[in-house]
């Protein structure tokens, strides 16, 4: 017999993904500010923290996918779609920020 994830459980996962990816996005924007101030080590640390938050969000997503693959019925709703969009754009933003940090280091007269 197939298990069913309740709408509340699905929403809980969605909000966890949104929370973690939102925290990561805030950290990434802090890192951008640090890059502009040539605080490269601080920016690198902040991007590492952001990656950890993204990993936690991705872990919640992966757990949900594993349940689905195991036969658990999951009804998708708009908040879950939003959480997936939020996570994917944050993951992309973090990758771009890591590249920008590398470039900032290359062109900065204040190389650390």
How many domains, in number, for the residues?
1
Summing up helix and strand content along with how strands pair, one would put the structural category as: mainly alpha
Portion of residues in beta strands equals under 5%
CATH fold naming: Methane Monooxygenase Hydroxylase, Chain G, domain 1
- Whole-number mean pLDDT: 94
Number of strands: 0
Let me know the CATH homologous superfamily: Phosphotransferase system, lactose/cellobiose-type IIA subunit
Q: Ranges with pLDDT <50 over ≥5 residues? A: none
For this structure, what is the CATH class? Mainly Alpha
Question: How would you describe what is shown here?
Answer:
The model has no long low-confidence stretch (mean pLDDT 94). It is built from three helices and no strands. With 112 residues, it is mostly helical. It has one domain (7-107): Methane Monooxygenase Hydroxylase, Chain G, domain 1, CATH 1.20.58.
Fold blueprint:
Blueprint: H1 7-36, H2 40-69, H3 78-107
Give me a quick take on this structure.
With 112 residues, the protein is mostly helical.
Highlighted features:
Methane Monooxygenase Hydroxylase, Chain G, domain 1; 80% helix; elongated; mainly alpha; 112 residues; 3 helices
